[in-house]
Amino acid sequence: MRRAPWVLAGTVAGLFGILSFRSSPQKITLSTLPTTSAPATASTPASGSPSGATVGPAAPTTSTASGGVVSATGPLVNYFYGVLSVRVTAASGHITKIAIASLSDGAYAYSHYVDSVSLPMLIKQAMAAQSAKIQGVSGASYTSAGFAQSLQGALSSLKLS
Amino acid sequence: MSSAGHRRVEAMGTTVTLDLFGEGLDGVVDTLAARAAATLRQIDRTFSTYREDSPLSRLRRGAATLAEMPPEVPRVLDACREAHRLSGGWFDPWHLPGGVDPTGYVKGWAAGRALEELRHPQVVGALVNAAGDLASFGDLDGEPFRIGIADPGNPGALIGVVALTGALATSGTAEQSGHLIDPFAHTATARAVSASVSGPDPGLCDALATALAVGGAEVLARLEALEGYDGLIIDAGGSWRATTGFPWVESPPARLSR
Lengths: 161, 258
Fold this sequence. Notes:
CATH architecture of chain B: Roll
Oligomer: heterodimer
CATH class of chain A: Alpha Beta
Distance between the termini of chain B: 43 Å
Shape of chain B: globular
CATH architecture of chain A: Alpha-Beta Complex
Structural class of chain B: alpha+beta
Number of helices of chain A: 3
Helix content of chain B: 25-40%
Strand order of the largest sheet of chain B: 1-2-3-4-7-11-12-13
Largest sheet of chain B: 8 strands, antiparallel
Structural class of chain A: alpha+beta
Shape of chain A: globular
CATH superfamily of chain B: ApbE-like domains
CATH topology of chain B: T-fold
Strand content of chain B: 25-35%
Distance between the termini of chain A: 50 Å
Number of domains of chain A: 1
CATH class of chain B: Alpha Beta
Largest interface: A-B, 55 and 79 residues
Strand content of chain A: 15-25%
CATH topology of chain A: Sufe protein. Chain: A
């Protein structure tokens, strides 16, 4: 008889899993992807309210720039090491830019890592997801529920998802 | 093009997203999403290992017997027993520290339970994503849902895209300094960094993905022989190996040598 394997299963909360490379598994999601049902035109949303069954502490805000380019900032979301929000810019129904709108990460030692490494990774992943015209991502590491939640708020208010 | 409804539920320590596709859904999305959310939260209350007062936590520490559990607990444990058998022992909720822990099955199973709450005559397709464990029915304008598989060694990229056929789950294993710990030999070894399983049953996909992540090629061979299920393992360098029927839409170039 073989011994039982150490089967670990868990979910990552916030960015902690990305930052520490600890030896526990992380299931992930970039649960907030733009879908193929994105509208062909970038109309200005009438309201910035997210459509989630539960909403974050602050409603997203939207704005319109020239040339049909719209942008929205997702709700402020608590993650393990602080509070962040994500800003999305879109043109003709497609995301052109994802950025961190605000980041309050306290005095934690990982703050620098958050700023310089993890968030750029998440932004890049979100952009890759859009270009593949997919409805979701399945993966085992490198994501953040907080990032995903704020991004979703921004996408919802732009009606991109 | 179908109109879509997207909702988010905080449950089981993560964010679960619900996507509904169909015409004229405005009046029903909130009702269906609320039902799915209630189901997820009820499952969370029953199966959470983080809540000391959950029925499962009481069972784990011996404060309650199986006979005192809500009926879904023995049902889930029966399903885990089947997953244990199908995985050749690599999925084993009974030999974990702290007592029986079916978490490796429950998240996928919960996604499937939430999905059932989204059934409605106007909903032609629905997708539940519980932190990487996906459950679905129907389609998107006649085409299967497309799901990206994250490249574990290259966080900015997807390693490929699959056509969703029911459920898809992905698990990662304990990884440190580029090595995985072999649970049997207690030595560092290179197995899958990321393991995905597709198939009809979301809970079984979750359990088998967990098994595949630790068991590697041995479990992949079992999946090859298991009707309706397919598997993919990816190493840190982005090389991969999959069962012959794995539902790629866009497959990656770098294949692991056999």
